[in-house]
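Would you be willing to look carefully at the protein I have copied below?

:::
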Amino acid sequence: MALFQLDIQSAPTSPASYSLVTGTPPSCSGNQRICTITATDNGSGKPIIDVAVLTNMVNALNSHSNTGGVNLKT
Protein backbone atom coordinates (compact mmCIF):
# COMPACT_ATOMS: atom_id res chain seq x y z
CA MET A 1 0.00 0.00 0.00
CA ALA A 2 1.14 3.53 -0.73
CA LEU A 3 0.04 7.05 0.15
CA PHE A 4 -1.39 9.26 -2.59
CA GLN A 5 -2.30 12.96 -2.46
CA LEU A 6 -5.41 14.17 -4.28
CA ASP A 7 -4.32 16.95 -6.64
CA ILE A 8 -7.52 17.44 -8.66
CA GLN A 9 -10.46 17.86 -6.27
CA SER A 10 -13.06 17.77 -9.04
CA ALA A 11 -12.22 14.13 -9.90
CA PRO A 12 -11.49 12.20 -6.68
CA THR A 13 -12.36 8.82 -8.20
CA SER A 14 -9.87 9.14 -11.07
CA PRO A 15 -6.42 7.66 -10.46
CA ALA A 16 -4.98 10.43 -12.68
CA SER A 17 -6.04 12.98 -10.02
CA TYR A 18 -3.48 11.63 -7.53
CA SER A 19 0.26 11.83 -7.03
CA LEU A 20 2.37 9.39 -5.07
CA VAL A 21 3.65 10.81 -1.77
CA THR A 22 7.33 9.93 -1.49
CA GLY A 23 8.44 12.15 1.36
CA THR A 24 6.72 13.76 4.30
CA PRO A 25 2.93 13.41 4.13
CA PRO A 26 1.24 16.67 3.17
CA SER A 27 -0.44 18.96 5.67
CA CYS A 28 -4.15 18.39 5.25
CA SER A 29 -5.73 21.71 6.06
CA GLY A 30 -8.88 22.82 4.35
CA ASN A 31 -12.55 22.07 4.05
CA GLN A 32 -13.41 18.40 4.73
CA ARG A 33 -12.43 17.24 1.25
CA ILE A 34 -10.15 14.31 0.52
CA CYS A 35 -6.47 15.05 1.08
CA THR A 36 -4.78 11.64 0.88
CA ILE A 37 -5.70 8.01 0.37
CA THR A 38 -3.84 4.79 1.05
CA ALA A 39 -4.13 2.40 -1.88
CA THR A 40 -2.20 -0.09 -3.97
CA ASP A 41 0.15 1.49 -6.52
CA ASN A 42 -0.77 0.48 -10.08
CA GLY A 43 2.93 0.40 -11.00
CA SER A 44 2.86 3.86 -12.55
CA GLY A 45 2.63 5.92 -9.37
CA LYS A 46 -1.16 6.08 -9.43
CA PRO A 47 -3.60 4.42 -7.03
CA ILE A 48 -5.83 1.47 -7.79
CA ILE A 49 -9.22 2.81 -6.72
CA ASP A 50 -11.24 -0.32 -6.07
CA VAL A 51 -14.58 -0.81 -4.31
CA ALA A 52 -12.92 -0.87 -0.86
CA VAL A 53 -11.14 2.44 -1.46
CA LEU A 54 -14.31 4.02 -2.87
CA THR A 55 -16.31 2.82 0.14
CA ASN A 56 -13.73 4.30 2.51
CA MET A 57 -13.83 7.60 0.61
CA VAL A 58 -17.63 7.79 0.91
CA ASN A 59 -17.52 6.83 4.60
CA ALA A 60 -14.90 9.47 5.38
CA LEU A 61 -16.82 12.20 3.55
CA ASN A 62 -20.15 11.23 5.14
CA SER A 63 -18.73 11.04 8.67
CA HIS A 64 -16.49 14.10 8.26
CA SER A 65 -13.60 12.14 9.73
CA ASN A 66 -10.55 10.20 8.60
CA THR A 67 -11.32 6.55 8.06
CA GLY A 68 -10.03 3.48 6.27
CA GLY A 69 -6.89 5.05 4.85
CA VAL A 70 -8.68 8.22 3.73
CA ASN A 71 -7.51 11.49 5.27
CA LEU A 72 -9.62 14.59 4.91
CA LYS A 73 -8.55 18.21 4.87
CA THR A 74 -9.63 19.54 8.26
Observations:
- The longest helix spans residues 51-63.
- The chain has one domain: 2-72.
